[in-house]
Description:
By secondary structure, this protein is mostly helical. It has helices at residues 3-33, 35-63, 65-79, 81-109.
Amino acid sequence: MSAADIRIAEKRGEAEAAREALFDTVEEIKARLAPTSIAHDAWEGARDKGVAVAEGAVETVKQRPALAAGVAAGAALVFARKPIINLLAGLFTDRDRKTKGRKSNLKNKE
């Protein structure tokens, strides 16, 4: 075998190794871009972010319990605003009816 043949064989081996590395890279990219892999990565990221937010909230509540109670009370009022309004409206409507009834009774007696 001549020196040229040896160099050609070496270069063919290098080319084969480079081709294998390229195919490995393509397979890795395919796996990363598969829809299930993307969805899994997104789910993991969202879960990790949710855990971090929850841990931060717990730590904040531990540091400032009065503030947390105020925020919770405010949120409860926002969520229950319609029933509270209806309750208050009913109380004032009943009071107005009773007051009007008393006034009309007083006029009839006079």
